[in-house]
Write a structure and sequence with these properties.
There is one protein chain. The chain has 173 residues and is an alpha+beta fold. It folds into two domains: 31 residues; 99 residues, Thrombin, subunit H (Beta Barrel). It has three helices and seven strands. A hairpin with a 3-residue loop joins strand 1 and strand 2.
């Protein structure tokens, strides 16, 4: 009796699968061969005049050209600095341990004012600033001015004639 039930269930499942497979094949086959509607041509009652290629917008006449990105990068690179920080942290399990951090900033004043993010220098005991020409300057927390809410910090290093970035003047816009 169980062989008969098993055979009946198996044949029923096989028939259902064959019907589903056939339905899928017929559906996909007819959807790819059905004729697609052709778009009707758009008829305009007014003639369209071609655009004059010699026309220029008023903004482009006698407008100064902007420098390329390569020019801007070449001019800004000397003022970009790498910042490395060191701090001693206390750990309950292993005691005190030196921790290093890294970030970037840029020189905003030739006498050693460097702007960076507060999270780069927060908690650091030693801050090492490396210029693009290879020079390094070391400073500590006593030479940092910060705004944690705005995440801005200004570091003062003891240096002169640094390559400061040229900042724009919004009053000339």
């Amino acid at each position: 009796m169980t062989k008969t039930v098993f055979r009946t269930v198996s044949i029923s499942i096989l028939l259902i699968l064959i019907i589903l497979f056939t339905g899928c094949v017929i559906t996909f086959d007819t959807s790819s061969t059905m004729p697609q509607p052709t778009p009707s041509p758009v008829v305009s009652s007014t003639p369209i005049n071609p655009i004059n290629p010699a026309w220029k917008s008023p903004a482009s006449i006698n407008a100064p050209t902007l420098p390329s990105i390569a020019d801007v990068v070449e001019k800004a690179i000397p003022s970009v600095v790498a910042i490395t920080t060191r701090a001693i942290i206390q750990n309950v399990f292993i005691g005190s341990q030196e921790q290093e951090g890294a970030g970037s900033g840029w020189i905003i004043d030739k006498n050693g004012m460097i702007i960076t993010n507060n999270h780069v220098v927060e908690g650091a005991e030693t801050i090492i600033v490396k210029l693009s020409d290879g020079r390094t300057f070391e400073t500590g927390q006593e030479h940092i001015y910060r705004d944690p809410v705005a995440d801005i910090a200004i570091i003062k290093v003891d240096a002169a004639d640094l390559p400061a970035i040229e900042v724009g003047d919004s009053t000339k816009l």
